[in-house]
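Summary of Year 1 activities. Much of the first year was spent building the evaluation harness for sequence design. The harness presents a backbone, in tokenized form, and records the residue chosen at every position. We chose the following record to illustrate the format because it has been used consistently in internal testing since the harness was completed.
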């Protein structure tokens, strides 16, 4: 790769172009451009295409870095997302859920549409599969 090509890559990267577009524009291999950019960590995209600090995590209120090309983030991590949904299970019932009846105990339960879902819980699956006492028939 010549010095002129390296300067063109630097200029196009600063304008916010990705490695694939740079390679097509300069007539180089995509892997050549990617390798050069990977080996040159000081080359960054232009500030206008950088991530923007907008909003905060629904679980821990940490600031979120949003990318303008992607859908807006609601959580800072998978752990926060899982924790929030486990504490807000009531929000799952709505337009996306359907009511089913458990094949083992007969209890109605809400679930996302699925051809395979038959049981309200893992315990009912085990009871129906291997035999045992249903949790509805236990003495209180």
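For this record, the design step produced the sequence shown next.
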């Amino acid at each position: 790769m010549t010095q002129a090509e390296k300067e063109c890559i630097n200029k196009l990267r600063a304008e916010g172009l990705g490695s694939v577009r740079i390679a097509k524009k300069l007539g180089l291999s995509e892997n050549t451009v990617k390798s050069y950019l990977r080996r040159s960590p000081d080359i960054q995209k232009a500030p206008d295409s950088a991530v923007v600090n907008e909003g905060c995590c629904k679980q821990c209120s940490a600031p979120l870095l949003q990318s303008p090309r992607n859908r807006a983030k609601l959580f800072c991590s998978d752990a926060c997302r899982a924790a929030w949904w486990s504490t807000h299970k009531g929000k799952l019932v709505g337009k996306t859920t359907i009511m089913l009846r458990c094949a083992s105990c007969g209890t109605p339960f809400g679930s996302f549409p699925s051809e395979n879902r038959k049981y309200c819980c893992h315990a009912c699956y085990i009871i129906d599969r291997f035999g045992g006492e249903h949790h509805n028939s236990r003495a209180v």
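Residues 98 and 114 are 9 Å apart (CA to CA). Quantitative recovery figures across the full test set are reported in Table 2.
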